[in-house]
């Protein structure tokens, strides 16, 4: 096992990782920007190092400064968390070349899964079903038109290098394709430095269901069951739960088998997530793989009773997976609500500011992962996630009841948050009945 | 009547999409702010000609700050 772990992140996830390190008796190093001086994550660690300016590219995205901090504190491992450099294969490679262990998958797996077209090709070869569409970047409108005619409208255009919904465009009929293609290319170029697009069939009212996988360097790959994550805004998740309600057993079996086959095919190690779209008939299609720890990993932890971050540390240190497939059981139900500093009444506009008051619930079945406290400044420079409320119960109904209660007892003043919106979601008949899909928000399902 | 265009959120100016003299329609983006990893356009409230852009790329603006003026 390592002696010292540097956590190259901030907010709730940095605190979560520091806690796990502490459980294993490891020394911890936090890095922070100028804006995060005195932030909770920096105080939690044994040592904290200021690595640069408030803008992420000067600090949390600055490989040189992070490696310098690691050398200075003699850290022998780096955990990247999620976001920032977690899915940069160049960062993972640089860490390795510096003689430091990267707690996550190998750079090669990150690179191949980060290229969405390459990922589709690899998964197809592994026998995992993907949405009908182009297997390569589509260079021009004429080719896009030919492919769209072949797979049938509506289609969706996606940035090959993209994520987070940027550069995506739905096209309903051939006449709209040329303009949408030009706009999506421009947006992808601006956001990702590459205008490459691919074309896929657009699925009506799909569910987003993902499977947690975990591999070790002995070639063992297990799945840790599914998470339902259909409640999204801007293609980013707001509510996640497990088990996924109303998921046909055959679909569930297919999903988990496909996730393991896909991860095994690329020799995946450490924690990762295979994301799928599930259509109304129970058919499923591979979307992408997140080659890192997910925001919503606590859902799986609460359901299985297993600690993913501890396992990440052990596996990165060369130990075998701490559990076999048969020991990974969905024992309970769990739900996570993401509390963002956003104003749901204004289309989820960011709401930076200072947290004046913060009252969070505690009690049976409630877990909170928070990156902030009363007095914290919520800066414009970073992702607006403040904290995650996670509840579990013996049944889904109990987990849901606890979530409603937890949301009702949460008070945050000084910034607008997603709490009122989340409360409407979990209180709705659709959510209670598990009748959810990824397009509900844009259709106004939970408007006040 | 000149009309001030104000930022509706706090953020950093990511991009300036119009320049003085440009004719804009209601709803056209005049600047794009970046806040919390999101790009948020600040739009012209009505059609008109841009008289002045009062911010520079990279500058932090507060909610309510004037970012541009329409003629």
The name of the CATH superfamily of chain B reads RNA polymerase II/Efflux pump adaptor protein, barrel-sandwich hybrid domain
According to CATH, what is the topology of chain B? OB fold (Dihydrolipoamide Acetyltransferase, E2P)
Helix/sheet category of chain B: mainly beta
Gross morphology of chain A:
globular
Features:
heterodimer; A: 448 residues; alpha+beta; Rossmann fold; 3 domains; eight-stranded antiparallel sheet; 14 helices; 22 strands; 26% strand; globular; B: 71 residues; mainly beta; OB fold (Dihydrolipoamide Acetyltransferase, E2P); four-stranded antiparallel sheet
Would you write up a description of this structure?
The complex is a heterodimer of chains A (448) and B (71). Chain A is α+β, with helices and mostly antiparallel strands and 448 residues long. Chain A has 14 helices and 22 strands. The N and C termini of chain A lie far apart (51 Å). The model of chain A has no long low-confidence stretch (mean pLDDT 95). Chain B has 71 residues and is mainly beta. Chain B has a single domain, classed as Beta Barrel (OB fold (Dihydrolipoamide Acetyltransferase, E2P)). Helices cover 0% and strands 54% of the residues of chain B. Chain B has no helices and 8 strands. In chain B, β4 and β5 form a beta hairpin. Classes of the chains: A alpha+beta (448), B mainly beta (71). At the A-B interface, β16 of A face loops of B.
Q: In summary, what is this structure?
A:
The complex is a heterodimer of chains A (448) and B (71). Chain A is of the alpha+beta class.
List the helices and strands and how they pair.
The complex is a heterodimer of chains A (448) and B (71).
Chain A: E1 4-7, H1 11-23, E2 27-33, H2 40-44, E3 47-52, H3 63-72, E4 77-79, H4 89-97, E5 101-102, H5 107-114, H6 116-125, H7 141-151, E6 155-159, E7 169-171, H8 174-192, E8 197-201, E9 207-215, E10 221-233, E11 236-242, H9 249-265, E12 270-278, E13 284-290, H10 297-304, H11 308-316, E14 333-340, E15 342-343, E16 349-350, E17 353-354, E18 357-359, E19 366-370, E20 377-378, E21 385-393, H12 396-409, E22 411-413, H13 419-427, H14 429-432
Parallel strand pairs in A: 1-2, 1-4, 2-3, 4-5
Antiparallel strand pairs in A: 6-7, 6-8, 9-10, 9-12, 10-11, 11-14, 12-13, 14-21, 15-16, 17-20, 18-22, 19-21
Helix pairs in contact in A: 4-5, 7-8, 12-13
Chain B: E1 3-6, E2 11-16, E3 23-24, E4 29-35, E5 38-43, E6 48-53, E7 60-61, E8 66-70
Antiparallel strand pairs in B: 1-8, 2-4, 2-7, 3-6, 4-5, 6-8
């Amino acid at each position: 096992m390592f002696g010292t772990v540097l956590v190259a992140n901030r907010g709730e996830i940095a605190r979560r990782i520091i806690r796990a390190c502490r459980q294993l008796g490891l020394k911890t190093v936090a890095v922070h920007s100028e804006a995060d001086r005195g932030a909770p994550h920096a105080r939690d660690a044994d040592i904290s190092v200021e690595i640069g300016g408030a803008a992420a590219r000067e600090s949390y995205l600055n490989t040189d400064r992070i490696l310098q901090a690691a050398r200075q504190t003699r850290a022998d491992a780096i955990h990247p968390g999620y976001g920032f450099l977690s899915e940069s294969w160049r960062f993972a490679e640089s860490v390795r070349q510096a003689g430091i262990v990267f707690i996550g998958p190998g750079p090669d797996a990150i690179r191949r899964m980060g290229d969405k077209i390459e990922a589709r090709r690899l998964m197809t070869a592994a026998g995992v079903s993907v949405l009908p569409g182009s297997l390569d970047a589509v260079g021009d409108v004429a080719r896009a038109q030919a492919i769209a005619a072949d797979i049938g409208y509506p289609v969706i255009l996606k940035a090959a290098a993209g994520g987070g919904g940027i550069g995506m465009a739905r096209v309903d009929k051939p006449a709209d394709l040329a303009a949408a293609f030009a706009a999506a290319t421009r947006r992808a170029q601006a956001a990702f430095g590459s205008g490459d697009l691919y074309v896929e069939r657009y699925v009506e009212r799909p569910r987003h269901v993902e499977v947690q996988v975990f591999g070790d360097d002995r070639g063992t790959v297990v799945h840790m069951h599914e998470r339902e994550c259909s409640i999204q805004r801007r293609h980013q998740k707001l509510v996640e739960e497990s088990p996924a309600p109303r998921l046909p057993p055959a679909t569930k079996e297919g999903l988990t088998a496909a996730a393991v086959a896909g991860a095994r095919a690329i020799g995946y190690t450490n924690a990762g997530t295979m994301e799928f779209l599930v259509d109304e008939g129970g058919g499923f299609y591979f979307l992408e793989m997140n080659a890192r720890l997910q925001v919503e990993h606590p859902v799986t932890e609460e359901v299985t009773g297993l600690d993913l971050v501890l396992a990440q540390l052990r596996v990165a240190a060369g130990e075998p997976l701490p559990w076999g497939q048969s020991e990974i059981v969905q024992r309970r139900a769990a739900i996570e609500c993401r509390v963002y500093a956003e104003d749901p009444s204004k289309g989820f506009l960011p709401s930076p500011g200072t947290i004046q008051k913060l009252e969070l619930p505690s009690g049976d079945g409630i877990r909170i992962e928070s990156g902030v406290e009363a007095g914290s400044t919520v800066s414009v420079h970073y992702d607006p996630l403040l904290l995650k409320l996670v509840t579990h119960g013996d049944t889904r109904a109990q987990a849901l009841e606890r979530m409603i209660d937890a949301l009702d007892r949460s008070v945050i003043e000084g910034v607008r948050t997603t709490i009122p919106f989340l409360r409407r979601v979990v209180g709705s008949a659709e959510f209670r009945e598990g009748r959810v899909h990824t397009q509900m928000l844009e259709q106004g399902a939970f408007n006040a | 009547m000149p009309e001030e265009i104000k930022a509706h959120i706090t953020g950093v100016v990511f991009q300036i999409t119009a320049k003085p003299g440009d004719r804009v329609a209601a709803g056209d983006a005049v600047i794009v702010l970046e806040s919390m990893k999101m790009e948020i356009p600040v739009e012209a409230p009505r059609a008109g000609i841009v008289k002045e852009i009062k911010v520079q790329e990279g500058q932090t603006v507060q909610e309510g700050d004037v970012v541009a003026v329409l003629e």
